[in-house]
Amino acid sequence: MSPPADRRRQASRGTYFFLSYAHSAPPPGARADADVWVGKFFADLTDEVRRQARPVAGMRIGFFDQQIPLGADWKAALAEALGDAEVFVPLYSPGYFSRPWALGEQESFRARLAAAGSARSTTGHLVPVLWIPFPPWETHPELEGALDLGRDVPAYAEDGLRAFCMLAPYREQYELLLTRLASRIVHTAERRPLGPSRAPGLDEVVRPGTTDPDFVVAVLAPTRDHLPTDRDPTGYAASGRLWRPYGRRQELPAAEYAASTAERLGLSARTTDFGQAAGLLGRRPAVLLVDPWIAAAPGGVDVLARMLHGLREWVVPLVVTDDDDTQDASRWAAEVTRLLHDAGLPQVKRACTVPEFVDLMPALVTEARRQFLKYGPVVPFEPPPEPVPSLRDGLSATGPAAPTDPASPPDEPAPLRPHGDNR
Questions:
Q1: What is the pLDDT of residues 251-300, one digit of tens each?
Q2: I need a surface site. Which of 115, 256, 333, 423 has the fewest CB within 10 A?
Q3: Residue ranges under compositional bias (Pro residues) (predicted)?
Q4: pTM for the model
Q5: Which residues contact 74 (CB under 8 A, 6 or more apart)?
Q6: Whole-number Cα distances in Å, 176 to 164, 170, 181, 341
Q7: First-to-last CA distance in the chain?
Q8: Which helix (H) or strand (E) holds 308?
């Protein structure tokens, strides 16, 4: 049994920096959502901090979320890492401020700073970076802090540090800013250390929406009380959405992993049993996790065929099995795949291990979203009602509109947001 979280934190020596960034949808055909340039930057920054630092024994240099083990509770792991970090380094991009997951990391760290502020100076513990430039019409107060890193490097404000990381002509500027950022991290961590302390979990700082979620994770699996004959009950629970197909190799139900992936991509998500999701699946993109043992019950194939009839294009299925399960599910997986094809879903993926499940999920979430945008219901646009003319402005209730001031140019339509990498 692992030691309690508070005991682990007392034993921890902390981490120099926590790197936060906005996850983006993988391109078509790709599986994982990891940004290779974020990974390269993290490695470069880690090396430079290590070169400058004089860490105490047991102190870690850097952390970013690709280091979290596949079967871990991601939100709990992030909260622990945020509680150990001395400096928070957010990579600001247009998508960062629209991703509740990324903003939740920042708000969690800020809450920890606020709790520590009465006892010590917290200056320098949040060091933002301009990763991708913002369009001229989009402004955020936080950008000033990010621009401060490279005010003497004009191309930094124009192109961002990601371009510096990617392109050889920027090598000199990249190394300059990398050294400067590492120096700030080391100075703060070694001369004004916070020390490990509790950081709020993401669910504590990100308020759930009151309306329908952006995304649904539905689960079609037997419950512990209604298993096929002789099926091992390990991994099953009172509700299908609590199903753990990989047993102790995962700390959370499979549906929670899928929902966390959607949240990292900026979508509010809800998990539910398939039988309770009919209304949501008709109006929201979804991933459907299917345990093929659902078909093994007497008459299960016929029942399943009726349940799957009428699924919409934006419900993307994943048949989940475990290669280490001593009970072979191949026959039922093939049967379920056939039923899903018959229901009009031609692309049916299968995950047989935890790494496959985690690796596939970003692409499945993105595909469901893409199908919803293509085939989903169209909400008619209703223009706001015309304002009632005011007699104070010299207009009659039925008269024509007053002429516009020639000195005031008409409003220009907002420029279209560019496509492409927009994180």
A1: 889 999 999 999 988 898 999 999 898 889 999 999 999 999 999 988 88
A2: 115
A3: 406-416
A4: 0.75
A5: 65, 68, 257, 260
A6: 10, 10, 9, 55
A7: 39
A8: helix 300-308
Q: Where are the domains of the chain?
A: 15-204, 211-375
> What is the per-residue pLDDT across 146-169, written as a single tens digit (0 to 9) for each?
999 999 999 999 999 999 999 999
Within 13 Å and on the Cβ side, how many CA atoms surround 259?
Answer: 21
H or E element: which one contains 15?
strand 15-20
Tell me which residue has tokens 């991601």.
74
Which residues are registered as beta bridge partners of 318? 289, 349
Calculate ∠ Cα 167-418-316, nearest 5°. 100
pLDDT of 89 reads: 98
Q: Are 289 and 219 in contact (CB under 8 A)?
A: yes
Q: What is the pLDDT of residues 9-21, one digit of tens each?
A: 445 679 999 999 9
Region for 2 from its dihedrals, namely left if φ exceeds 0, alpha if ψ lies in -120 to 50, beta otherwise = beta
Please give the helix or strand (H or E) that residue 159 lies within, else none: helix 154-166
Quote the tokens at residue 345.
Answer: 């879903």
Tell me the two tokens of residue 379: 């909400």
What is the distance between the alpha carbons of residues 80 and 272, in angstroms, rounded to a whole number? 28
Tell me how far apart the alpha carbons of residues 75 and 70 are, in angstroms, rounded to a whole number.
Answer: 12
Rg (CA), the chain: 26
Q: Which CATH architecture best describes the domain 211-375?
A: 3-Layer(aba) Sandwich (3.40)
